[in-house]
TrEMBL record:
This is Bacterioferritin-associated ferredoxin. It comes from the Bacteria. It comes from Glycocaulis albus. InterPro entries: BFD-like_2Fe2S-bd_dom_sf.
Length: 66
């Protein structure tokens, strides 16, 4: 899905930027080789970055049936 229409950036690109070290929207745009324009995408982009940077919760251990 497109997040930034001005630069045709998709959610996957923001996730990849975060996984590559981008800590905020500005650095994510830079990692994508783009510059922010209108700003309407900032909230969604920030949310995607935050989700990508959040530590994954450990999965509960399976309990064997008796």
């Amino acid at each position: 899905m497109y997040v930034c229409i001005c630069n045709a950036l998709k959610c996957s690109q923001f996730r990849e930027a975060a996984q590559g070290g981008a800590q905020d929207v500005t650095s994510a745009f830079k990692a994508c080789g783009a510059k922010p324009r209108c700003g309407r995408c900032f909230e969604e982009a920030a949310s995607l970055i935050e989700q990508s940077l959040a530590p994954m919760e450990p999965m509960p251990h399976a309990i064997a049936a008796e």
